[in-house]
DNA sequence: ATCGCATCCCTAAAGCCTTTAGGCAAATCC
DNA sequence: GGATTTGCCTAAAGGCTTTAGGGATGCGAT
């Protein structure tokens, strides 16, 4: 029988794709082994069980998303940068729902610090550079951006906005405009 | 051996409490049976397995949260109502993290329609009544409220705002003030 | 070319969770 | 007090997780 030629990287990538197909919650070692045409036990050479697999998929997704965010923000500022970053999150979630879910996995402090997580905060701060806020206000605003991007994305993904008019794209545009206005007048709300 | 005297209601309530303790993802029939001092198979008279248990906990949490929301909004309007409703979600999530997680379980359309879910949309509309918006704008605003309440709550719950200053309460107050301002000027952003 | 070797994937097995089937006894109703 | 309901039990089958150890495969060296 020929070998499958697996590596940790290939296993994690296949796990991310599987999560996108069947949902991050359904990602298990045995299901992934079935997908790869391999016995479950064979995955244990590459990944330390289901929990480790999920954690690695989460780290992959965080990194991929941060990369896209960097691309989106580069060379833009103000309203344009805000929309570009927001669309990055929303688009990634629509394209890769399993990976996006994975980014919300609870990581221990050490793993989180070494992940691409901090890069996401940097992206928000980069967008906010165009709005000239005080240090404290910038922290509040970083949290507001996280709140709106993450909140809208997950509600849309979970079907909360489906089957009603106007469509969610219109609300998204409206909300981003509102967010821009709010940031422009943050010091005098 | 004396009987435990279980009913479906008691099982679901105990399940909700267990979810608050160990997390909604860890809520399983066998773990709950252990907690109740009963064999796993015995739960199957009251609940149709782990999935059904989780669904019932979700429905319970949605109803409890809607009840609290109704209390919070009653007799208030404008900024006061907005803060009261927001604090209800944030407070419930802090007090009952497992139950709050349960409210985000994907329900099939029929179950969702019969749940307390629609009451939550009504609560948002009740708060928005004080802001005099057009029909379409009100829908956008309902989604904005859901976005902000849900987004902030989950990020805070997942530890995203921990270990940094200023504390998250300050950001929450700031964000609610901003939201109020935004709703007051919604038509001319 | 083939020998040696690292390692990749396998079989085997133990443990836990889920779920169904059927039985005994406790509470309830007459 | 006896019959009935029903709540909780034991038993068992099937699947997922994880560990231990074995055989084959592909690569590099001779």
From TrEMBL, chains A, B:
The keyword Transcription regulation applies. The keyword Isomerase does not apply. Residues 5-65 form the HTH tetR-type domain. It comes from the Bacteria. Keywords: DNA-binding, Transcription, Transcription regulation. InterPro entries: Homeodomain-like_sf, HTH_TetR, MT1864/Rv1816-like_C, Tet_transcr_reg_TetR-rel_C_sf. Residues 28-47 bind DNA. This is Transcriptional regulator. It comes from Terrabacter tumescens.
């Amino acid at each position: 029988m020929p070998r499958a030629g697996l590596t940790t990287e290939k296993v994690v990538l296949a796990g991310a794709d599987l999560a996108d197909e069947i949902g991050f919650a359904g990602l298990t070692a045995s299901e992934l082994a079935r997908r790869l045409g391999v016995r479950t036990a064979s995955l244990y050479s590459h990944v330390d069980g289901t929990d480790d697999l999920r954690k690695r998929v989460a780290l992959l997704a965080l990194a991929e998303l941060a990369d896209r965010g960097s691309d989106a923000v580069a060379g833009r500022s103000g309203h344009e940068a805000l929309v570009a970053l927001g669309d990055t999150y929303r688009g990634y979630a629509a394209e890769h729902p399993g990976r996006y879910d994975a980014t919300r996995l609870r990581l221990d402090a050490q793993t989180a610090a070494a992940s691409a997580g901090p890069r996401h905060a940097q992206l928000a701060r980069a967008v906010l550079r165009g709005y000239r806020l005080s240090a404290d206000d910038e922290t509040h605003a970083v949290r507001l951006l996280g709140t709106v991007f993450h909140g809208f994305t997950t509600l849309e993904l979970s079907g909360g906005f489906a089957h009603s008019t106007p469509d969610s794209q219109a609300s998204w545009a409206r909300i981003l405009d509102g967010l821009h206005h709010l940031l422009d007048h943050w010091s005098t709300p």
